[in-house]
Amino acid sequence: MIKSELITKLAGENPHLTRADVERVVNTVLDRMTDALEEGGRVELRGFGAFSVRERPARAGRNPRTGATVDVAAKAVPFFKSGKELRATLNLEGDAEPEE
């Protein structure tokens, strides 16, 4: 699902809100999550998962086309850890082995 599909689905489920209102709410939530991560914080959505930022150190990489060594700068990357309830929901169907 992409953001526009989420907005369309939420607008359809909430006819008392305009699509513009739903879009504003979705954008505000995502902006606040981004702001929290940018400040080095963590965003936890109970039952869904937690977003945090992990630091990747500088390293020597390789240009796949030429094989030349290139320096890759240190960077911060987003990290998501799924919640227990989300994992349980995703693994409910199809994973159970039939008992013999």
Strand residues, percent: 25-35%
CATH level-four homologous superfamily name: IHF-like DNA-binding proteins
Provide the structure class: alpha+beta
Quaternary organization:
single chain
CATH topology: HU Protein, Chain A
User: How big is the Rg?
Assistant: 20 Å
Could you give the count of β-strands? 5
How much helix is in the residues?
Answer: 25-40%
Q: Unreliable stretches, pLDDT < 50, 5 or more residues? A: none
- The domain count comes to 1
Element pattern in H and E: HHEEEEEH
Sketch the major β-sheet.
3 strands, antiparallel
CATH level-two architecture: Irregular
Provide the residue-averaged pLDDT. 92
Query: Distance N terminus to C terminus?
Result: 39 Å
Shape: elongated
CATH class reads Few Secondary Structures
Number of helices: 3
Spatial strand sequence of the major β-sheet: 1-2-5
How would you portray this structure in words?
The protein is an alpha+beta fold and 100 residues long. The chain has one domain (3-83): HU Protein, Chain A (Irregular). It contains three helices and five strands, in the order H-H-E-E-E-E-E-H. It has helices at residues 3-13, 19-38, 84-90; strands at residues 43-45, 49-56, 59-62, 69-72, 75-82. The strands form two sheets. The chain has a three-stranded antiparallel beta sheet with strand order 1-2-5. The radius of gyration is 20 Å and the shape is elongated. The mean pLDDT is 92.
